[in-house]
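quick one before i forget lol
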Amino acid sequence: MFFRSQHRRDCAAKQEERQRKLDGLPSSFFEACTETDNAVLDLPLSELVERHSAGSLSTASILNAYGKKVVSAQKATNCLAGVMIQEALVSTSSTSSDCKDIPERPKSLSGVPVSIKDCVDIEGYDTTVGYSSRVNHPASSSSAIVRLLHDAGAITHVKTTVPPGLLGLETSSDLFGRTSNPYNEKFSSGASTGGGGALLACRGSVIEIGTDLGGSVRIPAHFCGLYAMRSSIGRFPTQGALSPIPGLESVATISAPISRRLEDLEEFWKRVVEMRPWEYDHTCVPLPWRPVDLQETKLKFGVVWKDGIISPSPACRRALEWVCDALEKQGHEVVDFSPPSIPEGLNVGLQLCFGDGGAGFFKTLRKDEKLDPVMVAVRSLLGMPLLLKKFLARMTRKLTGDEVWASMLETLHLKSPAEERALVVSRDEYKERWHQAWENEGFDFLLTVPHALPAIPTGSAEKVTLVSASYMMIFNILDYVAGVLPVTFVDRKSDALPKDFMKSGDYKNMGLISKGAYSVYDADEMHGLPLGVQIVGRRFEEEKVLQGMKIVEDALEACDRKFIPREF
């Protein structure tokens, strides 16, 4: 018998535990949804709460409908890290709040199934963050958002898969295997909230609680046809949600919800804030919900067409063009915007993230544990001698003129405390330039693609690179509010690259990072994958950005371009 490492034993044990939990579900969960089940699944969040609170819809009926979708989603995409449905059937009325002096809360999320990303603590359950070393170490207490959810009557029924350490473009790990995209199993569901994205697209939950450092809720929304919004730091409870890089404050990780419907996302946000999250989480700002109505307002949208690193693929550019056209037809002003250098801001942000040389991220990884390919590349870069990297940077500039890649080569290395503080100063100066540019233009919102590509093929992350998340991560660095909503689908004819594109001047003028990303773009293979758009507001404009997302969605519907997701 071959010796199995502790890593392999822990992976096998965790997968066996998950399967036992699934096998122990009622037999009805393995049957097709009935008309009654579908009626439950079709209920918007507000109506589901109303019926459950009134007693006309039972917890068992809700979990029977969503449980069937959980089972089928797991079979189709491998999206589950943990199953808590049986416990939810027994104990939905219990609460876990540590806020003993707080009066009884209204059950404003009564009966709402909420899935939890496997980096958010739930008392009594592992929080693996995709690492086998965290198996069999259940959390001693629940995170702030989980306590709030339980006090509000929500049902936390499953935990969802993540890549090891939460940084990557694909959700795949030794611990749980690969999570696929429901629209096409050959493609990624995104990361790092990829399990939640796949589950939601399969209608296995109403809300997913994810986290976002560089687009980790927005990438799955873009790849899987969903709605997500990252808030400013302090607006949504984050205590008890583990970060990819523990202790990093200069580019903070925030928690954020994803949903299948825009109205559910807004309702969920509103009800969470009305639960006074600052009384659960000391990091939350005591800022009540501020209703915004922009329906009769003519707005000004700035459009960022390129990030200076990877130009949008034809499919993603078309989705952005559709949105601009729809808004102009509704009388809104849409203008091009050239912001302060995104590569410059991203470079500062990445240096801050890996200023410890990657020690915080890589320390939990076991020797025989696989990483997302993009993080393998990051580890190689960080481990390379600085003199060699500076030499390679000079050669890159001389031979290719690729300033973006050259600057990454010579700046991503271990920093001294003084160097880190200087980077924080640079970050703040960069923020000020954005602030002035926005003030000068008088924008209400910015529009960008969420990513240069649709969902990427399995195994292609190393070619696409972590830098491709620039359209999203830049707003984490700025701490702006950014939402993603679905627009349309890839079309093999409309979105194909021009014939002989790889021989064209446009391709030859691309940098190395851009060429790597475009090497995986194939409109024919990607046909039918969702495409989103990103709408951005300034700090603490969560209510306004949600309204902006609604204006975009309404404008598309007015042009007969309403997004209709596939049903799984």
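fyi The CA atoms of residues 400 and 509 lie 9 Å apart.
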